[in-house]
Amino acid sequence: MIYRCILLFAVLAPASATGIQMLFPDQKQYNYVVKTNISTGVAHRNSYWTLEGRLVVLVDDNYYATVQFKLEDLKTSVYSYNTGFSSYHTPEAARELEEPWKIIYQENGFISAIQHLPHERVWVTNIKRAISVNFQLKKDAGSYTNEEPCLYESCVMVYSVQGNTIKKYNSYQKASMTSQTSWSSVPWSGDYGRGVPENIATSQRVYDLDEKGLNCLNMKGLFEYIVDGHVLTVTTESVEEELQKSNQMGYEELQHELSCEISKYMNCDVSYTLKRLLPGDLKDNIEDATILSLIRKLPFNIANHSQALLEDMETISKLGLDFPQEIRHAGILSFAIMVSHCVEAMKVKQDYFDSILVKYFRMYSDCPQYLDRLIWLQGLCSLGYTSESYIRTIYADKTRNRHERLWASLACGQDTRGYNVLETSLPILMDDNEHIQLRISALHAILSSGIRESDFLFLHSWISTSRPELQRFWYSTVKSLESNKFPKYRTISDYIPFVSKDVVNPDSSLWGTNNYIVSGDELSGWVQVMTVGNPAPTLAALSVSTGGRRAYQASVYIIAEGVQFDKVRKWKQSDLKVDNLLKILERLNVRNLKTSEEVHIDVVIKIQDKTVYATHINQTRFESWNGYDLTKSITEFLRFGSHINQQIAYYPIQIDVNVPSDLGTPIRLQSSVVTFTSLRGNLTSNPDSGLALDWVNDLHIRHQATITTALSTIAPLLQSEHEVRVQRSAVAHLPIKFNVTMEQYAKSIALTWLNPFAQRAGFAIHSWIQVHMDARQPDLYTVSSGITTDDDSGIFFDCERKTSGAEVVEKYIMSKFMSYDLFPTKHILNTISRFITSCGVIIPPNRLVGGEDEMVHVEFTLGDIVFQKVDKIEMEFDFMLKYYSINDPNKQIYLKIDSNTKIKSAGRNLFIKWFLYVNQPYSLDPKKKFWKLCYTQKDTSHAPSDQDITIHPSSYHGTSKILYQTSEEYNQCNPNETRPNESIETKLQLNYKGTPKNNRGTIERYVEVDILGENLHNFDLLHNLGYGVKTPVAQLLGSFDKNKINTTSVIKEKDGIASIRVNGGVEVEMYVGGLSWLLDSWTAMQLMRRFGLYRECRLQESTVQMLSGSVEQLQPLQCSESLVLADCSVSPRFVILRKQDGGIQLYDGDYPSKNATSVHSSKVTDYKSILEVGTKILSESTGVVMYKRLNENVILLPSSYMHSVCGECAGHTTYNNC
């Protein structure tokens, strides 16, 4: 009998072959010695099991169509670090594996099928198949590739031939649903049925052939999984093969059991648990919040998707009216997500899915209420791209509700292929009659698709001449993508450099329309903020992704229309005296009065583009909100106090991946995150505290999180399991023990904190790697670094090598790493294992508890705030912090900080005072027990009286002063006070003046700044802030070493290019772009006009510049009066008329004590015709401002009235009293 060797060293890989006659040229029996070794662990630390025996190959078919294999004389052993070697096996299992099996080959020499006993257990068949796939081979010359059957569906093998030695290794494997499966309790970016991408799986086989056939086979494979810098490894000496349908059910049953093992919270019994909650006799005994939470999280905690599960759970999508509306809506949305997940896992028959699709579309179409239609529509969106035809029907139908069409276009399962997107979205984008929200949504859909460069350049060219809102959205998109790689816009990122220099910001008044993106490389997290509105946003979308290869993505979409200032203040109709205005409008033949824009608020929250929450707020719900009731509830809650005992056990985040090893035994990868948060304590208040609100907090917040990642294999002959795991945990404790006092009439809030430095707050983290063997002699040990030291000065505990805090910081900062994590908790825990193996840290380290009662008192007081008209503001506020001992009858102060701020803006002038006083009695330097920082600024504008309605900035001048002094005694910031130690004062004064020029419509800015300083070397705050000697600040100011400095800087700007020259030196240029207006002196009204909060209308002799900006011919006045501009709503606020005598007349809604007044001429009274040139009229009740100029009348209108205005400033219709 001839014995030949097969030496197998591997870890996970496929196989391939052709030419069975090359391996077995003669029809006889071949015998081989087989040795296998499957190990699990990390570098130099593992646990393994072995299998040895004899492989008998019988070739007795003349056509080489069938070959029989048989294992004999099997021996097994296990090894672990502490228990060493032991040898045993289960006789029954060995007998099953020693049963012969046959391989049926195709004509080309590749395996067609494997014959085994009909009732053979799954693991036995898998091992036999794994061994079989090694015996197929293709011999050619040089290097070549071949696609062959393997343990996966198929594998691409790379061959290299040198004489009689053939090497082949696995280049790529196509996995099936049974050979490699994965499941996650949270959404992730990977497809169902595919392994996680953080692993490396490869195998190599070396065939040694001679004239007698196969002489020796050396196979080496590797499977590695990397987690936070640790490489978990499974090494096996065997082969792997894709499981066939004959044992698919058994493998699925195994998967189901594995899923139940790791998903004890909900996964396997979720249907039964939920069904128990839903019947009427039980749901009344369970809080609605519990049912709601369970339904919403249900789709993300199902491991085994099936149509039977959907049929069983379909009841949650048709709950009765005895359930609260929120629960019914949550059921509709969650069931749609469950259906989508089952479709992605290919576990649903097409006819059943079609019935669900039709059901959601019909319910959306037939429901009379908008909120119900919104819910069914979002469920339709969650069904995925398979609902594309229905979504496109809704999106493209102009007869449908505009908001429903918008929701059908935002993250709603549409096909992202370029042509289909262009076919649907391009007509909407280019239709001027479509709402701007729909047009920008269409543009976003196009950018998210795989459009070609020609389409992109066409869009760029077309948008440059389209509506300003589209130009603004395009501008912010291009500028964001210049420095950010955005996965959603991956295709167009390559085209951005071709157009980035051509885009311009159309107008600052369009600040409400944006597309801001912050991202890094392709695997980093990203944030996208989209807003649409003019001026204020009415549509906002925020999308966040955690990044990594299992990115967690969440999105929030909000539509808020009709929420205007008057609706927020909730003026009642009885408060308005509008009869006079209605009569004026009737006299001018204004018949069709506009109703106020209805409040329309939609909120949609999506996870991985699947809607988990949606709601709608209409006018009725909005008006039912009562701020007073809310305030009263909070007050009563605080007055009577409350005991809080809240524990939150979060749903575990779980990932389970199963792949075959080279021996056919399963390799299992598990990752789980378990978190727990508790809030305990008391919140009490004294009911007799008078007018003040005073409550005491004695709360404790604790947060605990544990992350475990494990890689394991099973030895069926030994009934043992071998596992390596990385576990990280963190515990945080935050005590909240302080008192809060709010005094309404004093407009102050104070915080008092007893013993702030004695409260035991802290953060502890720990990490370790363990190798575990579950066998007859189980073993568990922790992998250490192997380095020991007696140094106890570090802050680490439970470490063989203790590390100082400085080393930790250095290692953390100097290391570059990438996180593949899902949540911030996991990110925090992962940081520790980047520079330690098995270790922990406590922050802060243990310290002695102080024996003296100390107090920190912080108080903020808001003084008088005065708003007069639109251009006069006065405010004052104070801040105080005291740290003292409460045992001392004099309340000895350790530290006291006082701050006072006064701001006054009158007309076009600004005055600021800010004083900061610090008292530190225990300062090591007695001359620094007291210090003060005084800042004053006086800014004077040279603007004319009508500066508000000019488009150019005015000249200005001003002075800013900073005074800093430390002393042994308290000194105030009083310039008239005689102070000791005058010489140690530090002074810094900036005298500036700006004189912009208008050169043929182009603004040329010129700013001159004189900097005077004394004793800057005593200004130690600058040194502490990093602005000391040899810094750019010091170079700009001259030198801190000199007693006095005198520096002059000149700044010039034109067309976005600014230059600066210091003391007549070299001129340095820089690009400032759209920031150049910060060098100007603007009035408050000019800023509001700049940002679109006010709109302007100008009436001249024969033309009118309307609120939209267009210029039209102004018809001659044939009647005694004509309507210039009015609030033409059912409750009008103002009416503006022009008269035949050339005057202009303003009527307002006559709110109590709020009438239109003249701010220029005392001869002008309300409702009189304004004739005097230079007159300015302000209606304080409406905010409308009018200017009477030579041959021109200018009206400034708050943009909130734009939806209801009419008149010559608003459109072509003329209203008069003819």
From TrEMBL:
- Keyword Transit peptide: yes or no? no
Matching InterPro entries = Lipid_transp_b-sht_shell, Lipovitellin_superhlx_dom, Vitellinogen_b-sht_N, Vitellinogen_open_b-sht, Vitellogenin/Apolipophorin, Vitellogenin_N
- Where exactly are the transmembrane stretches of this chain? none
Keywords in UniProt for this one? Signal
Q: PROSITE patterns attached here?
A: VITELLOGENIN (PS51211)
**Keyword Signal (UniProt):** yes
Write down the superkingdom of origin: Eukaryota
Q: Which residues form the signal peptide?
A: 1-17
Q: Which GO terms describe its molecular function?
A: lipid transporter activity
Give the residues annotated as coiled coil: none
Could you tell me which residue ranges the Vitellogenin domain spans?
Answer: 24-839
Q: What is this protein called?
A: Vitellogenin domain-containing protein
Source organism: Danaus plexippus plexippus
